[in-house]
C-alpha cells in the first residue's frame, strides 16, 4: 500500500520508520511503525487526518495540511 504524500512527509519529519501497512474492510489504512506507540491509521475517505494510537485504544488526531470545510444542514 502506497502512503499518501502528507503521511510520508509527516513520518519523515518526525523520524518515524514504517514497518508494515494494511487496509481493512472499513477502509482504514493501518500503519505499523518503529515509534514507541507503533500504530497509526487514516481513513481512505479522509486522508488528511492521521490518527496515532497512544495506548489503551486512545487515538490522537493529527491534521495533515488543510482541513476540508464541513457543511451540515440543521
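Sequence proposed for the structure above (74 residues):
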Amino acid at each position: 500500500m502506497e502512503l499518501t504524500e502528507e503521511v510520508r512527509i509527516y513520518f519523515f519529519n518526525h523520524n518515524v520508520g514504517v514497518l508494515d501497512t494494511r487496509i481493512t474492510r472499513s477502509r482504514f489504512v493501518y500503519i505499523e511503525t518503529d515509534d514507541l506507540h507503533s500504530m497509526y491509521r487514516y481513513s481512505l475517505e479522509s486522508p488528511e487526518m492521521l490518527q496515532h494510537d497512544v495506548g489503551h485504544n486512545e487515538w490522537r488526531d493529527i491534521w495533515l495540511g488543510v482541513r476540508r470545510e464541513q457543511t451540515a444542514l440543521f
